[in-house]
Predict the 3D structure of the following.
Amino acid sequence: MNGIDTAVHLREYDPDGLVVFLGLRPECAGDCFTAYPFNYIIKSRLNYTKGESVFLAAYSVFKQRQQPFIVCRNRSTFQCIRLSDISHFETLGRLVVVHFKDQTFEFYSKLNTVEQSVKDKGFIRVHRSFIVNLSYIAAADKESLYLLGHESAIPIGQVYLDQVRRETYPFFSINQNNQTLTL
């Protein structure tokens, strides 16, 4: 696998990543654009100033694009997940299950620890076993939330009901019989 194939393969995992090619011949620069590089530098023209300016420009773009993420670790794997991709967290015994992009990842932690790490980042604790991403809430009633892309309801615990109402108030209004939260 050459550098271009490697970069195309990396794009499958991180479409927003920045790739800088360092090549020998200017005529090869056009070949690399299937991988959407940030820059192509010709080795013979590379000097400290040029390298530094490309690095600083790439870093500036990276910082602007950077989205908050959470790092989850189980016995053998680290998983970096963008917070915007996560619909919710749930506990199953000592395991926390994070639901994201039609996938799940299980890791050992306490939901309280997860809650502290996503606090004030668009997530809300709605039950002793669930934390949800506010942007994924599609509908709600007095006892449950319904998330985009998920068929099963997320229960709202009595302890969390007032907080859920306060946090979702900008998105929902309570109908007259106080039974359903609607858009």
In short: The domain at 69-182 is CATH 2.40.50.1020 (OB fold (Dihydrolipoamide Acetyltransferase, E2P)). The chain has two domains: 3-65, 69-182. The first strand starts at residue 20 and ends at 23. The mean pLDDT is 85.
